[in-house]
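Hi support team,

I've been running sequence recovery on a batch of backbones for a student project. Most finish fine, but this one hangs at about 90% for roughly twenty minutes before it completes. I'm not sure whether the input is malformed or the queue is just slow. I've pasted the structure tokens below so you can try to reproduce it. Let me know if you need the job ID as well.

Thanks,
M.K.
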């Protein structure tokens, strides 16, 4: 099967990136990470990429006049590297129209809660504070909203009585590492059909 060219956008430690790389290297994912781009020069994700011979590129948002110019530079970099699918992995910025228009239905995100519950930057903490009995993670296509796009896959796990943000986040992360690659593999197999706000798996 032809390998899907991935461009990963990450702002931090990059454990989801690592899981994707590991699954590719284990032959479980028909994809190739073409480039990793970060808005943070010290993001550990960049180092992980370079360790595996993948270009790790820092694009400084501060050097552009605004979001559109910044995203144009990102799109240029993605296109130069033959990226077909953009994977957000701990990318801490709301995606704007330039990126969205260039990669419509070809942009995925992972969120550490069962959307539409607990969107935003503190999904695990918000779930613990609310007192829900179950939480999990969600892979979805990205639209203009914050964590609002069509849902591809979710994993559910119980919230334990004594969980705090960190213990819950650690258990959720293990599931993230599985379902993100599964969602990418479904894309690679052309099995994801977006119908309005729903994704049909064929
Ligand atoms: C993950 O919890 C992901 O769900 C969220 O940001 C975190 C990124 O972690 N979007 P990592 O950088 O992949 O380790």
């Amino acid at each position: 099967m032809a390998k899907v060219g991935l461009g990963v956008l990450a702002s931090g430690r990059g454990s989801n990136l690592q899981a994707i790389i590991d699954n590719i290297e284990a032959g479980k994912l028909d994809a190739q990470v073409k480039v990793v781009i970060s808005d943070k020069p010290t993001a550990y994700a960049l180092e992980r990429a370079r360790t595996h011979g993948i270009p790790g590129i820092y694009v400084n948002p501060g050097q552009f006049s605004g979001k559109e110019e910044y995203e144009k530079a990102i799109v240029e970099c993605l296109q130069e590297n033959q990226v077909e699918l953009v994977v957000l992995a701990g990318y801490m910025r709301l995606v704007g129209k330039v990126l969205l228009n260039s990669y419509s239905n070809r942009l995925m995100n992972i969120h550490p809660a069962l959307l539409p519950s607990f969107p935003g930057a503190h999904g695990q903490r918000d779930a613990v504070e609310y007192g829900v009995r179950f939480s999990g993670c969600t892979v979805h296509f990205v639209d203009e909203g914050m964590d609002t796009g069509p849902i591809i896959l979710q994993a559910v796990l119980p919230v334990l009585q004594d969980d705090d943000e960190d213990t819950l986040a650690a258990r959720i992360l293990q599931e993230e590492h599985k379902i993100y690659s599964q969602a990418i593999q479904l894309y690679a197999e052309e099995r994801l059909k977006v119908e309005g706000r729903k994704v049909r798996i064929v």
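--
Follow-up from support: It reproduced on our side and the slowdown came from queue contention, not your input. The chain has two domains: 1-103, 110-202. No action needed from you.
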